[in-house]
């Protein structure tokens, strides 16, 4: 697959960011993480950051219009011939906007890797990260809210992509290397 266009889908803490970074090195395509871009906007105090901060702190989704704008701008850059989407899309409206843009650019998605991990393991991982990195939304109450938001608004996207036969499920439990191996296998079966 040359310059593959991948989407990593999964609940908070599933390992999307960790695996995306390994894929960046291996496939030499950029990671497009709306979470990272929004956190940078918050840190810089831009208008997008000011709009996003409250939602992020509460573990709610940032409004579609804001996130779609951020993602579309990034996807139109010349280095995004191939890409690893991490944390976008997260709602039906975002998925539809992405479809429209990719069609316009002539760059359709190749694969959606759906990562699954048991919820208690996810909470444990994120609480551990809280001790190390101190991310504002890694406290138990916000984590639980992020899980609920994922189940209600994002998980249905798996069915959306399954209809187009793009979904490859990957067990996200195990070491980072074990999960990376599973992803490698589903990308080149
Ligand atoms: P975002 O930054 O996307 O956060 P998230 O989806 O909650 O994802 P995480 O970063 O928590 O988890 P991950 O799956 O990337 O796992 P990671 O590799 O980091 O979004 C944050 C917020 O921004 C949202 O709540 C929302 O407000 C807003 N937002 C972002 N995108 C949006 C959108 N499209 N629409 C609307 N709002 C949006 O790993 C987690 C931890 O586990 C790490 O410490 C890692 O070291 C560890 N770990 C990873 N793999 C393993 C393993 N195999 N074994 C043990 N530990 C592991």
Task: Walk me through the structure.
With 189 residues, the protein is α/β, with parallel strands linked by helices. The chain contains 9 helices and 5 strands, in the order βαβαααβαβαααβα. The protein has helices at 16-27, 34-44, 47-58, 64-75, 92-105, 119-133, 140-154, 156-162, 176-187; strands spanning 5-9, 31-33, 83-86, 111-116, 167-171. A 5-stranded parallel sheet has the order 2-3-1-4-5, with helices on both faces. The chain is globular. The termini are close together. The protein binds BIS(adenosine)-5'-pentaphosphate. BIS(adenosine)-5'-pentaphosphate binds next to helix 1, helix 2, helix 3, helix 6 and helix 9. The site of BIS(adenosine)-5'-pentaphosphate has 31 residues, from helix 1, helix 2, helix 3, helix 6 and helix 9.
Summarize the structure.
This protein is α/β, with parallel strands linked by helices. Helices cover 58% and strands 12% of the residues.
Number of helices: 9
Q: What proportion of the residues is helical, as a percent range?
A: 55-70%
Query: For the largest beta sheet, what order do the strands appear in spatially?
Result: 2-3-1-4-5
Radius of gyration: 16 Å
Structural class: alpha/beta
Bound molecules: BIS(adenosine)-5'-pentaphosphate
Q: Can you summarize the main beta sheet?
A: 5 strands, parallel
Which key phrases capture this entry?
12% strand, alpha/beta, binds BIS(adenosine)-5'-pentaphosphate, 5 strands, 189 residues
